[in-house]
Design brief:
The chain is of the alpha+beta class and 275 residues long. It folds into two domains: 6-142, Fructose-1,6-Bisphosphatase, subunit A, domain 1 (Fructose-1,6-Bisphosphatase, Chain A, domain 1, 2-Layer Sandwich); 151-260, D-Maltodextrin-Binding Protein, domain 2. 31% of the residues lie in helices and 27% in strands. The chain is built from seven helices and 15 strands. It has helices spanning 6-26, 45-61, 92-96, 168-179, 191-199, 213-225, 253-260; strands at residues 34-38, 41-44, 66-69, 73-75, 82-90, 103-110, 113-121, 126-131, 135-138, 141-142, 155-158, 184-186, 205-209, 229-231, 244-248. The strands form three sheets. The chain has an eight-stranded mixed sheet, with helices on both faces. Strands 12-11-13-15-14 form a five-stranded mixed sheet, sandwiched between helices. A two-stranded antiparallel sheet has the order 1-2. Strand 9 and strand 10 (141-142) form a beta hairpin. The model is unreliable at 266-275 (pLDDT under 50).
């Protein structure tokens, strides 16, 4: 069994503590107190309680780190180089509808780079972790992205814009392009798990626009440490303030990118590969 680092142990302990409350609330989802933040975007007592539990546990273990959290925003710590990037409940809409597909996401940002990541699915008890240069793991089992090289054999994941968001027509164009060349597209509504599933080889690629940093911070490192590629849709380096994300295995990244940005079908130009 892989020995977890002290940092991953801290993150795991915090995630498990928050998960206990979330699983209890999930069992009584119809009784949750819910307030509306915006169109089709909800925040519940479960989000807030989980964020509080995570903040307390992480701050106790690393008191100098700052925070970037979905509900409470950014706060600088005594160490300006490091901060936690946390989504206490990714997949809130799934949660509130009783759909068992949601996760806790925790990342450590150091000098503007993600150096440690955790995505935990409490319902399936799947713990995805990674540290820079140390590989990606699911419950201590080493992960690798898929080895599929043909779009026709590949399954991709995405997020669909909903009420109150722009880009519906543009998304439909992207979707049409991917539908025409792939084995299928999935939309499960939890970006952190979409990225974790790429790291596990379950999906072959993922794209979405308009995500927040806490939605994908941990997932970036999971994919990279599993041997995959992550960029913006236009191919630029991904940042926490990037407007879009494209993640996949190395073999499919360029072909998928060409389709999504409307540059034609695979084979129209030499594919760009990562070292």
């Amino acid at each position: 069994m892989k020995t977890r680092s002290p940092l991953i142990n801290v993150m795991t302990k915090a995630a498990f503590k928050a998960a206990r409350g979330l699983k209890r609330d999930f069992g009584e989802v119809e009784n949750l107190q819910v307030s509306r933040k915006g169109p089709a975007d909800f925040v519940s007592a479960a989000d807030l309680n989980a964020e509080k539990a995570l903040r307390e546990e992480l701050a106790r273990a690393r008191p100098d780190f700052g925070f970037l959290m979905e509900e409470s925003g950014a706060s600088e710590g005594r160490d300006p180089r490091r901060r936690w990037v946390v989504d206490p409940l990714d997949g809130t809409t799934n949660f509130l509808h009783g759909l068992p597909h949601w996760a806790i996401s925790i990342a450590v940002e150091e000098n503007n780079a993600i150096i440690a990541a955790l995505v935990y699915d409490p319902i399936k008890d799947e713990l995805f972790t990674a540290e820079r240069g140390q590989g990606c793991f699911l419950n201590d089992r080493r992960l690798r992205v898929s080895s599929r090289r043909n779009l026709a054999d590949a399954i991709f994941a995405t997020g669909i814009p909903f009420k109150g968001l722009d880009g519906h027509d543009g998304f439909l164009t992207e979707l049409k392009g991917v539908m025409a060349v792939s084995a299928g597209v999935r939309r499960w509504g939890t970006a952190s798990l979409d990225l974790a599933y790429i790291a596990a080889g379950r999906y072959d690629g993922f794209w979405e626009r308009g995500l927040h940093p806490w939605d994908f911070a941990a997932g970036i490192l999971l994919v990279r440490e599993a041997g995959g590629m992550v960029s913006e849709l236009n191919g630029k380096d991904i940042r926490l303030d990037s407007p879009s994300i494209l993640a996949s295995n190395n073999a499919l990244h360029s072909d998928l990118q060409r389709i999504l940005i409307g540059k034609g079908t695979p084979g129209a130009a030499p594919a760009r590969r990562s070292a």
